[in-house]
Amino acid sequence: MAASSRLVSKLAVVTGGGSGIGRAVCQRFASEGASVVVADIDEGSASRTVAALPRGHRAQEHMAAAVDVSSRHSVDRLLTSIQHQYFQPPSLCVSAAGITQDEFLLKMDEEDFDRVIEVNLKGTFLVTQVFSRAMVSSGFPKGSIITIGSIVGKMGNIGQVNYSASKAGVVGLTRTAAKELSKFGIRCNCVLPGFIATPMTDKIPEKVLSKVLSLVPMGRIGEPAEVADVCAFLASDESRYITGVSIEVTGGLFTG
Predict the structure, then answer these.
(1) Which of 113, 125, 131, 163 is the catalytic position?
(2) Which residue has the higher pLDDT, 57 or 186?
(3) I need a labelling partner for 71 at 20 to 30 A (CA). Which of 42, 57, 94, 231 fits?
């Protein structure tokens, strides 16, 4: 998809923007004219993302920020820093921060289960709540909240009972948020990536990855930019009558 100018004059915040899908979303949004706040638990990674973002549109200004999405205090502090810098909250919000702590159900530590839920599900809740409240308080006529789920939240995956549960929760959270926030002009949608080339999937053993790819009708692993393209569509007015949906970006994995 060729870059356009659909997001000119928009302010966006992207959690998990320091790498992987989050970084690709930041790049895509900036290429379409948005000013982007790159938020990540690793502020150094966020700063590296910001350094590579285009600034070809008028009044574009990007910002790096540290955030622990599992902490309300940290998310509140992120919003405060954005409002101090831009004198307004973002109208676009993408929750791409996420972690894995993989293990079989019979062997998984409770702490690993809790941590994945805290970051992936509670973190998405906190970011959605804090930034939607700010949008409502500011009286924005429209806003777009995009959550990053996973196809395994729909289908399950061996060794990922915590991750699958967290991402299934993200879908339910997004659908409910869409119902509650639509009256304020805020749309909420979820993107469900399949196996995408990110630092997270780099951990998958080659033998396992080969087996997974044999199940993908398109025969290859996806690219972060292909997820970012969908996020840009959902952030733009081209999707102005779309809310409460989950869009799969999987190359056909688990179709049927």
Answers:
(1) 163
(2) 186
(3) 231
